[in-house]
Structures are given as C-alpha cells and as structure tokens.
C-alpha cells in the first residue's frame, strides 16, 4: 500500500480529521489501556458516534486516540494527555506511525479521528465504570 506523507505539496488539502486525511493532521490523546479499552467499547456500542483510529503501545500500557488537530490546546481530561503531532511525517499505512506501537483500530476499519467531545464523555464514563468495578472487589 502506498503511504501518504504529511505536508507533501503534491497531496491535495483536506479538512483536518476528515475521512482519508492523513494521521499527521491529528493530535493524539493518550490514556491508560484499561480506560482506553473501556472507552473504545463505549464508543462502539453506546453513543452511536464513530470511534477513530486507535494505537496501542507494545507493552499494552496505553492507548492513543487520534483526534482533530488543535485538540491538544484545550485538552484537560485528568489521567490523559493530548499531544499535537504538527504533521511530523506520520503516514497513513498499515504500519503504525509511531515506533513501538500497533493499531488497535487501523486505517480502513475506523474513521480517522474521534470527536474530542465524544471521547471526553466516553473516557469519563469509562473512568466511572472502572471505579465502580474496582470498589466491588
């Protein structure tokens, strides 16, 4: 599969975060894997909203949700971080764009970016679910 380089002048401009936009047009929200997996489940079954591309690290400790560019500037969800990618050469390919990671939801199986407001709500619900489950032990 041919990869699409970010900021390639031959690549026509696209609306950031739109389907088919390269991942470099996105910021990345990183969360603990347990909360992230719960949020993916919530997004896939409960909200009716699409979940975007999701990365996981090789150690399985974190998940990274691709969100529209600019999200990092206002992201304030406790227990998570949001990093702007600034188009640093990420590629849209079957191979993950970050060394030491792999796709949980790869290109072709998900929309490009998750709506940050929807993700924020799903992460909050996931945290509450985990807290409730842990308090039953």
UniProtKB/TrEMBL annotation:
Residue ranges of the region described as Disordered: 1-27, 85-109
Biased composition (Pro residues): 10-22
Highest taxon of source: Bacteria
Name of the protein in question: Uncharacterized protein
Organism: Streptomyces djakartensis
Biological classification of the source: Bacteria, Bacillati, Actinomycetota, Actinomycetes, Kitasatosporales
């Amino acid at each position: 599969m041919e990869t699409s380089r970010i900021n390639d002048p031959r690549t026509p401009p696209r609306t950031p975060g739109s389907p088919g936009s390269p991942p470099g047009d996105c910021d990345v929200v990183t969360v603990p894997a347990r909360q992230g997996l719960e949020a993916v489940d919530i997004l896939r079954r409960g909200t009716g909203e699409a979940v975007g591309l999701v990365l996981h690290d090789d150690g399985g400790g974190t998940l990274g949700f691709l969100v529209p560019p600019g999200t990092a500037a206002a992201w304030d969800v406790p227990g998570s971080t949001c990093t702007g990618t600034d188009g640093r050469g990420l590629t849209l390919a079957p191979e993950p764009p970050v060394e030491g990671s792999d796709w949980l939801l790869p290109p072709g199986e998900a929309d490009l970016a998750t709506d940050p407001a929807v993700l924020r709500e799903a992460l909050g619900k996931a945290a509450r679910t985990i807290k409730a489950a842990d308090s039953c032990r």
